[in-house]
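Dear colleague,

Thank you for sharing your sequence with our group. We've completed the structure prediction you requested, and as agreed, I am returning the results in plain text so they can be pasted directly into your records. Please verify that the sequence below matches your submission; if there's any discrepancy, let me know and we will rerun it promptly.
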Amino acid sequence: MVAWVGVVFVSIVVHELGHALTARAYGAEVEIELNGIGGLTSWSATDGDFGPGRRAAVAAAGSAVGVLFGGLTWLVASAFGPFSGMAGLVVRYLILVNVMWGLLNWLPIRPLDGGHLLVSLLQKVTPRNATRVSNVVFLITSIAALGAAIWLRLYFIAFFAGWLLMGEVTRGRPSRPPVTIPEMSFDDPQPDTAGTTDGLDAPEPEPEQADG
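Please find the predicted structure tokens below.
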């Protein structure tokens, strides 16, 4: 467990550094946030244009660096190995996590890096239809991911894919406005000052007016 947690932590940092260093190379200010389910790299352009081409490069860089890191680990292990025990376990985990997750992260599924990469490429090729085409592709790929996860009995991934599919189905739907509950007052009735006893001769109250 300790080896797995350490490998995942290092792999996430390497992946996010791929995004961050590429964005910094284009003159952007970057920030890396690590959380319980992974990491997030955000950037803001300071100088020059940060168009779809550069955004695509930044999106692809994370997995590219991860795959490269996993490949270098395999080369080192082949040259100086074989390793056994804990060292062998760490080497296998490093290769598996970086190469497999890097390739999976290139799939055109929102919000994976492949989803950002697809949107950037569509904005470069067909900017007018980028949103519409990407929404259709993401709907199809999320359905395919859910079906594949259920077929392979990967139930945790199926739950995650179902959550992504729900987000695609509900995307763009207008949210219902909140229901306004009218205010009600329960003031005590005022005594009749006109001298009437049965209320039949009392004038009817004028209707209240509401603004807007």
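Summary note from our side: The chain has a mean pLDDT of 80.

Kind regards,
the structure core
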